[in-house]
Amino acid sequence: MEIDGYFFAKEANKIPFEVFISFKRNDTGGKGITCDYQLASDFHRTLTAKGVSVFFSERDLSGSAYVRELYQALDEAKILIVVGTRPEYVRSEWVRTEWETFLTAILSKRKPGAELFTYLEGMSVNQLPLELYNRHSFTSAQKNELVARVMGNLGKQPSRRRVFRRSTVLRHHHSHKRSGQDFNDSQNQIRHNEQKGAVDSCLESNGNRAGGICASHANRLGIC
Fold first, then answer.
1. Does a structural domain hold residue 76?
2. Is residue 160 in a domain?
3. Of 143, 125, 171, which Cα lies nearest the Cα of 47?
4. CA 168 remoteness from chain centre
5. 97-136 b/e (C-beta count within 10 Å ≥ 16 → b)
């Protein structure tokens, strides 16, 4: 659903948000997108492809009339993921407001069973705010582990392909399925490598600032 430039990954049937992705979209000068946005966007696509209802804001919410929706999403979500490539972005006004609100709800037992994870690239756990230091942290190289953790916490199991009983049909189906799966695996690996390259370019350009290189990669990958 898109409202005035905000994208909410929520179906029309009003399924509650399961995951909230917190990140800083624009850099400090407001002149370009951050590497945090690229990481968050890639992870958002991965989760939604697996059927997870995700709150993902396409731009900063400061001064917005949609703060109510933000707090509603924080209240609904069972998992919050803080994405960070620079310490100051994790500490930025709205990102800090989001994770502080969610963490307070966990500690006050308002959200039993809820989890808060950090998803980092280009910074260490030691650079996180003290409140987040003891939360379970993942790097972008551990993306699959984080996805598995999220799916497990939500009680979602990978979908299973239909098995045909007749052996002749099974052999025919398996050969086509395998070739199709090989192609899909290959395409997914290519996209993963491109995404990793885009993030690396971000981190290496202008002292870890998301500038022209970051934006060009983002456009090529269809991120923004």
1. yes
2. yes
3. 143
4. 42
5. bbbebbbebbeeeebeebbbbbbbbbbeeebbeeebeebe
For residue 32, being part of any structural domain is answered with yes
φ, ψ of residue 165 to 5 degrees: the values are -80, -40
125 found inside a domain: yes
Residue 147 and residue 27: Cα distance in Å, rounded?
26
What's the CATH code of the domain at 51?
A: 3.40.50.10140
Number of H helices, E strands in the chain: 8, 7
pLDDT tens for the chain, residues 1 to 224: 333 333 444 444 468 999 999 999 888 776 788 999 999 999 999 999 999 999 998 754 555 557 888 899 999 999 999 999 999 999 999 899 999 999 999 999 999 999 999 999 999 999 999 999 999 999 999 999 999 999 999 998 754 443 333 333 333 334 444 555 555 555 555 555 555 555 656 656 545 444 443 444 444 444 44
Domain hosting residue 87, numbered range: 2-164
How many domains does the structure of the chain reveal?
1
